[in-house]
UniProtKB/TrEMBL annotation:
Residues 7-223 form the ABC transporter domain. It is found in: Membrane. The chain crosses the membrane at residues 245-265, 309-332, 352-374, 381-400, 412-436. This is Heme ABC exporter ATP-binding protein CcmA.
Length: 441
C-alpha cells in the first residue's frame, strides 16, 4: 500500500517583489523523505520554506499538507533574558523529563538554567534544534540549520535528522553547507525550470519503529493554542516588569508635576484633575506599545506564532496581555493620584469607569497601530502619531463624563465610551492581523 504524501505541490508559482522565484513546481514528499534546496543567495530558498510553512501564499498553484510542521528559521526564536528551559516552555509545554531528554540529545543539559544571552551562537542554534525534538510534527522545515555548529554538534544534528526520517518524519532543508541527507531529493533554485530531482525509489528509507523515540507526545489534556498564547504573553510581560514600572513612574511623576504647577487652588485642581489624569494615563499606556510585536518579529518568534494561530488571535492575545500588565496597574493607582487634585470620593467611580473604558479602547487601538507600523523605520515616532488622533474621541467623551454632573448627559457620554470600546474589539484585532500577515509575508 502506497503511503500518504505528507506534502503535495501542484503547479506552484512564487513571486516576490515582481520577480518570479519558482515557476510551475509540482511534487510530493512521503514519510522518510528529505528535500534539499540548493542555489546561490537570493534565489528564493528561504521564501520557498516560508511558503511551505504557510507564512506566505503562493502566487499560483495549490499546496496540500497532511502533517503538522516544525519550523527552524535563520533566527532561533529565543528570548535573551530567559533561560534555556524557559525558552523551550514558551511554545511547547512539556514535563522536565522531556526537556532533559531533548537537551541531552544535543549536549545542552548543563545549560538548562543558563540565560540565553550568555550562550554562543552555536549553542543558541542547538537550543533551536532542541525545540524540534519536543514537537510531534512529522514535517521539519529547516533554514540554514547547521550555521554556527561545530563538528561535534554537526554530527549530533545528522544523527537526529536520520532518526527522524527513519521514524517516518520528513525534512526540507536549505543550506549553503553540505548536508548529510542520504537519498535526498534535490531542488535547484535560480534556474529557468524548477524540478524536484527524485531520490532512487530503491533507496527510500523505511520506518524503523525500534529506533529510540525522540518525538514526544503533547500533554494528555492539550491547551487551546490561544490560551497557551495568552499564557506565553503574560509570562513574557511578567519577566519584563520594568515596562510596567516605567509606566507607573511616568504617571506618578506627571501627576505630581501638574499638581505642583497648578498650586494649592482646590477649585482649579478639581476642575482640571480628571483631564490631567486621562492624558497621563494615555501617554503612560503608550510606552510599552513599541515592543508589542517588535521583539517577536526580531527574534523569529512571530513566525512560530503565526504557524499556530491566526494573526488576528495573535494580536488579540497581545492586546489583552498589554492591558492587564500595563494599563490595569495604572488604573489601580488612580484613586491615589486623585488625591493630588483633591477630587471628591463621589466622583471617583465615574472617573475610574471612564478611564477603564478609555484604556481598553487605547489597548485595542494601540495593538492595531503597533501592527501597522511593524517593520517601519522609526516606528517609535510613527506609533504615537497614529494612535493619539484615534484616541481623541474617547478622550473628549471620557473627560466630559468626569466633569458632567450625574444625569442623562453623563450616561450618554459613558455609553459612547462603551460603544467605542465595543467597536474596537472586533475591528482592531482584524486589522492588526492583516497588518501582521502582510508585514511578515
Amino acid at each position: 500500500m502506497h503511503p500518504t504524501p505528507l506534502l503535495s505541490l501542484n503547479h506552484i508559482q512564487l513571486t516576490r517583489a515582481g520577480r518570479c522565484l519558482i515557476n510551475d513546481l509540482s511534487g510530493q514528499l512521503y514519510p522518510g523523505d528529505a528535500l534539499t534546496l540548493i542555489g546561490p543567495n537570493g534565489v528564493g530558498k528561504s521564501s520557498f520554506l516560508r511558503l511551505i510553512a504557510g507564512l506566505c501564499p503562493p502566487t499560483q498553484g495549490t499546496l496540500t499538507r497532511t502533517a503538522n510542521i516544525a519550523w527552524l528559521g535563520t533566527d532561533n526564536a529565543l528570548k535573551p533574558t530567559l533561560t534555556v528551559e524557559q525558552n523551550l516552555r514558551l511554545f511547547t509545554p512539556h514535563p522536565i523529563t522531556a526537556l532533559h531528554e531533548a537537551l541531552t540529545h544535543l549536549a545542552l543539559t548543563p545549560l538548562l538554567n543558563c540565560p540565553v544571552r550568555l550562550l554562543s551562537y552555536g549553542q543558541k542554534r542547538r537550543v533551536g534544534l532542541a525545540r524540534l525534538l519536543l514537537t510531534n510534527a512529522p514535517l521539519w522545515l529547516l533554514d540554514e540549520p547547521t550555521h554556527g555548529l561545530d563538528a561535534q554538534s554537526l554530527a549530533l544534528f545528522n544523527t537526529i535528522i536520520a532518526t527522524h526520517r527513519a521514524q517516518g518524519g520528513c525534512v526540507m532543508a536549505a543550506s549553503h553547507n553540505p548536508l548529510l541527507l542520504p537519498h535526498s531529493h534535490i531542488l535547484t533554485l535560480g534556474t529557468a525550470i524548477h524540478n524536484i530531482t527524485p531520490a532512487p525509489l530503491s533507496s527510500r528509507l523505511h520506518i524503523a519503529p525500534l529506533l529510540p523515540q525522540h518525538i514526544h507526545e503533547g500533554p494528555k489534556h492539550p491547551v487551546h493554542p490561544f490560551l497557551h498564547h495568552l499564557r506565553r504573553e503574560f509570562w513574557l510581560a511578567l519577566s519584563h516588569r520594568r515596562d510596567g514600572i516605567a509606566g507607573l513612574g511616568f504617571l506618578i511623576i506627571c501627576c505630581m508635576l501638574f499638581a505642583l504647577a497648578l498650586g494649592p487652588a482646590p477649585a482649579r485642581l478639581q476642575q482640571v484633575g480628571p483631564v490631567i489624569l486621562w492624558v497621563c494615563l494615555l501617554l503612560a499606556s503608550l510606552l510599552p506599545l513599541e515592543r508589542l510585536y517588535n521583539a517577536d518579529a526580531e527574534d523569529g518568534s512571530l513566525d512560530l506564532l503565526r504557524m499556530r494561530l491566526a494573526p488576528a488571535f495573535i494580536a488579540l492575545g497581545k492586546i489583552i496581555s498589554h492591558w492587564v500588565t500595563s494599563s490595569l496597574p495604572l488604573l489601580l493607582i488612580t484613586p491615589l493620584m486623585a488625591l493630588f487634585f483633591q477630587l471628591s470620593l463621589s466622583s471617583l467611580p465615574r472617573l475610574i469607569l471612564s478611564m477603564t473604558l478609555g484604556s481598553l479602547t487605547l489597548a485595542f487601538l494601540g495593538g492595531m497601530t503597533a501592527a501597522i507600523t511593524l517593520g517601519a523605520r522609526q516606528n517609535s515616532l510613527l506609533l504615537p502619531i497614529l494612535t493619539l488622533p484615534l484616541m481623541a474621541p474617547s478622550l473628549i467623551f471620557g473627560t466630559l463624563s468626569c466633569t458632567t454632573p450625574p444625569g442623562p448627559a453623563n450616561h450618554a457620554t459613558l455609553s459612547l465610551l462603551a460603544a467605542f470600546f465595543l467597536l474596537s474589539v472586533p475591528l482592531c484585532p482584524f486589522i492588526a492581523g492583516l497588518s501582521l500577515r502582510d508585514a511578515q509575508s
